Amino acid sequence: MRTRRGRRWIRLAKRVASHVVLILACLFALFPIYFIAVTSFSALPIASITAHVLLPNPSLLTTASYNAILFHQSPSFLSLLENSLIFAGSSAAIGLALAAFTGFALSKFNFPGRRAFVYFILLISLFPSVLLVIPFYFMFANLGLIDTYLGLIIPYSAGAVVFSGILVKNYMDSIPDDIEEAALVDGMSRTQAFFRVLIPLCYPVLGLAAFLAFIGPYTDYALAHVFITSSDKWTLALGIYTLNSSDTGSMPYGLVTAFAIVMSLPIVVAYIVFQRYIVGGLTLGAVRG
Amino acid sequence: MTGIRLENVTKRFKTVVAVDDVSVEVADGEFLVILGASGSGKSTILRIIAGLEVQTSGHVFIGDMMVDDYEPRDRNIAMVFQSYALYPHLSVFDNIAFGLKVRHVERDEIDRRVNESARQLGISEVLKRRPSELSGGQRQRVALARAIVRQPEAFLLDEPLSNLDARIRSSARIELKRIHQQLKQTFVFVTHDQSEAMTLGDRLAIVDHGKLLQYDTPQQVLSHPLNRYVASFVGSPEMVFLEGNVEAAGTAFTFVEGPVRIPVRGVGKPGPVTIGLRPWDIAVGRSARDGGLPATVTGIERFGSSDQVFLDLQGPPGSLPARGGSAVAIRAMVRAYDFNVGDAVWVGFDPDRALFFDAEGERLESMSLLNRLP
Q1: Which B-chain residues 216-245 have CB contacts (< 8 A) with chain A?
Q2: I need a surface site. Which of B30, B86, B170, B282 has the fewest CB within 10 A?
Q3: What superfamily does domain B4-233 belong to in CATH?
Q4: Beta-ladder partners of B278
Q5: How would you classify residue B342: left for phi > 0, otherwise alpha for psi between -120 and 50, otherwise beta?
Q6: Contact predicate B34/B57, CB 8 Å
Q7: pLDDT tens digits for B269-287?
Q8: pLDDT tens readout for residues A156-198
Q9: Does B98 contact A285 at a Cβ distance shorter than 8 Å?
Q10: Which residues, at least 6 apart from A83, have a Cβ–Cβ distance to it below 8 Å?
Q11: Tally of CB atoms within 10 A around A77
């Protein structure tokens, strides 16, 4: 009896301890976001914000910063958002389509140099993309693509292929060849089997790939800063930077944080949309087991 | 309704010869079982028929058509995979209907045929479920229904029963045979399980290392194996082999292994020879009248209706009993509970059933036991 009760206590203690650790980890992750949120709703100078953050005074909360960035900014917030969505959306769509084909080819076709190619792609993805900004600039300047939508969408999509192509390949590797072959015997061409059997089975990884392919361009600063010169094509990431470089001398924390909060909303929405694909495990039970 | 013919089919993967000059003709409506150990090339043969692999040389005919250049989808065959390979993202109904939808069969016709084949296989209740919600036996039925619903020219089955529990495997076997009798279509079935092959096949093709070793009815394969590999692979319990030498003394030949001496006849010349006997062709009795060779029971495996006894053969009567190690171990099937470990018994071989193999394992048709033992 005694040992059984003792064991129960140990189990309870373990559970409490693990929850304490998890709660601390959550606080650690969430606090910066909370800090930004509170800052964005206050008009105080930075020095007094810290005290305000720990004990927010409701009477000091204001939406003035939001008002300023959303309605009294040039170029307008809406224009920045529109550009960001154009860049990120089309890059994600193009990158995703290319990544699906790349993954299919690398996973299900046997051609000479396949392994070498996979390693080559992995090697490329090791380099920070900022390294490519200058060579890209010269190349795209020659092609007359600087300060155009296409000029940014091409490198963004290419970046998505490099990373997501491998992601899709690894996922397709886990789909047994039998399933594709069953489709071939059932009367499909390889292309049909790809679209009607493999692609639906890959929804989880494609959802993840689309999400990542969207986030990259949406948050990119380096490439956009170099390539885009006219303000009517500025993205959100460029817009947030202009807040800082205004000539007031001090950092407008309220504006910057409010901007960051609004800018992050589409990412949150995208995550919620794609989360069920990311979490889903469709192939379970496809084969014996 | 179509037969299948392979003409000198060879398949090489880089340096490995997976299928080595195989020629087989399956008659219309026949049930062919390709039997072989894993890695023998049996599945590759099936995949070549399906068009999933392309042979390095040789030809494949389905009916009168040479289909060498045909894609799998144009061969109008159905295949059941070992893993079943159901589409995980589709319901059972859509899994079965898939091949019909691709061929643009009318909707009403699809409904009718899917329901018909589901009824035939007893899976009407689960048509709305996903494959992941089915038991192994149900998945296997769905895979079979998916093949049947297409009304193909022939069925190719790649070890479809090997992932089932032993309990339902035998009933699935009977059911498969029933379906074949109902459809009267050509079946090619690949397995490594010889008892599956014996019960299902109208004909067996036994392959090893890509070579077709024998192509015959199950009865012929069992009673007249062409070589030692086939003899040992087919039949359960496995054939007993006595590996010794034939010694000549004038015109008389004697087979010698350890202390055992058995007079044989034939145009054989002295040298290494193996005698093969089915365990059920070895007679075991309690007195010298029952057999010619003394032996001791060293072990018993009880199957219920019969026993397999493990015996140590000793020299001919009158000679000294063999001492440990030099005795020749054999097995025999006897009536249940007739013998116990340690019993001294007499063993006899049926001369009409004993098979002889040379050093390469090829059958020596010319040799036989000289007389009934005793």
Answers
A1: none
A2: B170
A3: P-loop containing nucleotide triphosphate hydrolases (3.40.50.300)
A4: none
A5: left
A6: no
A7: 788 999 999 999 998 988 8
A8: 998 888 888 888 998 899 899 999 999 999 999 999 999 999 9
A9: no
A10: A233, A234, A235, A236
A11: 20
Query: In this predicted model, what pLDDT tens digit does every residue of B190-244 receive, in sequence order?
Result: 999 999 999 999 999 999 999 999 999 999 999 999 999 999 999 989 999 999 8
Q: Most A CBs within 10 Å: which of B13, B49, B81, as the mutation test of the A interface?
A: B81
The pTM for the full model equals 0.81
Tokens of A83: 């550009």
Domain A74-279, what fold? MetI-like fold (1.10.3720)
Taking the CA atoms of A194, A195, A198 and A204 in sequence, report the sign of the dihedral they define. Answer: positive
- Does position B121 have pLDDT exceeding 70, yes or no? yes
Helix (H, G, I), strand (E, B) or coil at A42: strand
CA-CA distance, A156 to A92, in Å (whole number)? 8
**Where exactly are the structural domains of chain A?**
2-62, 74-279
- Per-residue pLDDT of A75-93, as tens digits, reads 888 899 999 999 999 999 9
Domain ranges of chain B: 4-233, 240-369
Using a CB–CB cut-off of 8 Å, the residues of A that contact B are: 176, 178-179, 181-189, 192, 197, 200-201, 282-288
Residue B101 at interface with chain A, using a CB cutoff of 8 Å: no
Q: Please give the DSSP secondary-structure letter assigned to residue A61.
A: B
ipTM of model = 0.84
